[in-house]
Model the fold of this input.
Amino acid sequence: MGKTKYICPCFKVTYDDVRKAVHDGADSFKQVKKATKVSGKCGHCECRVKTFTKEILKDMEQKTCSDKTAADKDKKKANKKIADKSKEVEETEGKKKQSKKIADKSKEVEKTEGKKKQSKKIADKSKEVEKTESRKKQSKKIADKSKEVEKIEGKKKQSKKIADKSKEVEKTEGKRKQSKKLADKSKEVEKTESRKKQSKKIADRNKKVKNAEGKKKAGKEKNLLVKNQDNLKMRVIRLDDKNYKLKDVT
Done:
């Protein structure tokens, strides 16, 4: 049977087409017919197709059996290889686990050592911090004491200034009191002098009044004399204590 020979000339279906259909999964004449349309017109090629499909199926069965045996051998070999590999893998995994455990232990040891170093560093830092804090506290205490001393000195200076000012004020007040006393005495002296002057003035006035009254009396007598002599109205005008003049009133 050639590759180019048609098994169904009506639809030009070759042997290879049938073989391909069987290899693709067609395991009966109906399925081959459905896949290739073989013997779908006249039906003369039906017997040929059936026998050819049976031959192909037998060949395939034989091949499958041989393939199965070969496959079983190959599977056994493969399984043996897999087992050997699995053993090797297990051994390598055990070694890896051991190495991993060793590495983990070394890491833990390193971590513990690192933690110890860190704790030591932290302890050293805490000690330094405590020292610095104690120094700060001491410096703070010293600063507070110096501030208190400065305050006390300032208060002393202020109290000294206040005492000096009070002394100055007392001196000024004493001077003021003295000046006030002097002023009061001078006022009293002035009052006494003014009283003396007033009393002197009053005495002078009284004398003048007495003199004036005596002169008035004399003037009245003169006026009377004048009036009686000349029958004229005259008035005596006082020029000063000693001089007078007469004035005609008519």
About this structure: DSSP finds three helices and four strands in the chain. Residues 217-248 form one domain. Strands lie at 6-8, 13-14, 234-238, 244-248.
